[in-house]
Write a structure and sequence with these properties.
single chain, 291 residues, alpha+beta, 11 helices
Length: 291
């Protein structure tokens, strides 16, 4: 009973933190960046450009443009990701409309770039840390990184370079350069707050029965696990599973641990580098999981 209660409390707290992060991110955009024509990356950056040259509001564009990316995220990361992503994007879009009526904090380009980037990074980092998502390109980048030897951060950087190039052609090269500087500030802050968006994480899972959790990890995340044999000093024989994944997949791993019946103990550590290829989905693995 207490486990269910704690789980519910954590879900409530996570939605509160997602709300705070979305509010902070929208405040940074509307009160620092957008009035000075400094762009964010991803879908938000595309929405800013389109809102400047069309009659559509940025909040509406963010929701509409994110729909296909949300579907991709749902197919690869499950219902829980979809619920939190939709919630965070709705709060983000609504708060953009609210903060759009607030006076700009500063018209000094350097101050707007630095402080806007810092606040945006903190807001996005908090949302990501608690399982939400403000920009659908993150989910697409995760899917691509599973198929090709390129990190999530590198994919997002390539997407943003294209966006900033377009911004430079429309608004001027100085705005594109300020936007690129804001991106690097924001990304480093996200890295600090959420412990790294694309940084690989190694999960060591200790359980009595690793078969069920291995199947769930593969089914929900598409990640394979390596099984080791362990011996507890008091608890006796244990199964130890080793799995490498991205930081944004850690919240789903936590939910998997809560859903399986057997008690699970998990530690997560940083991975400085990966050598070799990760085993991708194959027919053989799918057959094993079905069995």
């Amino acid at each position: 009973m207490s486990k269910i209660k704690n789980k519910n409390l954590y879900h409530i707290f996570s939605f509160l933190m997602i709300t705070f992060g979305a509010l902070l991110a929208s405040f940074a955009l509307e009160c620092f960046l957008i009035p000075n024509t400094i762009l964010d990356g991803g879908v938000t950056g595309i929405s800013i450009i389109l809102s400047k040259i069309s009659i559509f509001s940025m909040g509406i564009l963010i929701i509409l443009l994110n729909i296909p990316f949300l579907y991709i995220g749902y197919k690869n990361m499950g219902k829980n990701f979809l619920i939190k992503a939709i919630y965070s994007m709705i709060i983000f879009s609504l708060s953009l409309a609210v903060f759009g009526k607030v006076d700009v904090i500063t018209d000094q380009m350097l101050l707007a770039t630095v402080y806007g980037g810092l606040l945006l990074g903190v807001g996005c980092g908090v949302v990501i840390r608690f399982g939400g998502c403000l920009d659908g390109t993150e989910s697409v980048a995760i899917v691509i990184s599973k198929c090709f030897p390129i990190s999530v951060g590198q994919i997002i950087l390539l997407i943003n370079l294209v966006i900033y190039t377009v911004a430079g052609l429309i608004f001027g090269i100085d705005r594109a350069l300020y936007s690129l500087l804001t991106y690097f500030i924001t990304f480093k802050v996200i890295d600090f707050v959420s412990e790294g968006l694309e940084q690989a994480k190694a999960a060591i899972i200790i359980t009595d029965n690793g078969k069920d959790i291995s199947k769930e990890i593969y089914r929900r995340l598409g990640r394979t696990t390596t099984k080791l044999e362990g011996e507890g000093l008091i608890s006796g024989s244990k199964e130890v599973l080793y799995c490498v994944m991205t930081r944004i997949e850690i919240p789903e791993l936590r939910r998997i641990a809560e859903d399986v019946e057997d008690p699970v103990f998990i530690t997560v550590t940083d991975v400085s580098s990966i050598i070799g290829n990760h085993i991708k989905s194959t027919k053989k693995i799918k057959d094993i999981v079905k069995k």
